[in-house]
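As the work plan foresaw, our protein records have gained a structure token line. A representative record is set out beneath this paragraph:
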Amino acid sequence: MHESYTTFMLICFLLTITPGADTALVLKSSLGGPRKSFVMTTLGICAGLLFHATMSSLGLSAILQKSSQLYHLIKLLGAGYLIYLGARALFEVHSHGTTEEDLDAPQSDRADFSAFAEFRNGLLTNILNPKVAVFYLTFLPQFVNVQGHVLIQSILLSTVHIAMSFVWLCLIGSFVAYFRTQLTKPLFKTAIQSITGLALIGFGMRLAMSKA
């Protein structure tokens, strides 16, 4: 079992550091809001992961795997939400731009910041992604000892992955926040937010066109 858990940790680590929609969302949050806004986004992402992990542990997410219509409906909703976030990011950066006054203004005074909105974005991005549910449903059982308490083991294994995701995304957000002065120069910020917006749209389209 020790070797099994080591393998699980390694696979989780590799999956966690692989860039995806969550990474793009945290980058967008780090550049577009107060310095700690990425923490709320990350908490939302982890809450979404916890939701799917719990459903998987209880066996409820098996419905998604067996009901193709429900799976595709949720997949399209999730893809649409990612595309919406990406399109909004592109619209904001290219319609409003970024001025030196915006960069000098206290981050806490920005009226457009909402901790709830940042949390919601992270939460919905994951809850509306049925691939996360299927991932937990098919991946975790490989490392569960059927002779032990399956539910507790599943939740503990899920918690390990969620904790890794939280730490990794916070590290990314902290890095961006630390170098915010350089990263938020108008031209550089426009380029990064444009790339991030396009990445979110790309992840959304890939999710929509995926067959499973």
User: Anything to note?
Assistant: Residues 150-178 form the longest helix (29 residues). DSSP finds eleven helices and no strands in the chain. Residues 99-111 have pLDDT under 50 and may be disordered. The two ends are 30 Å apart (CA to CA).
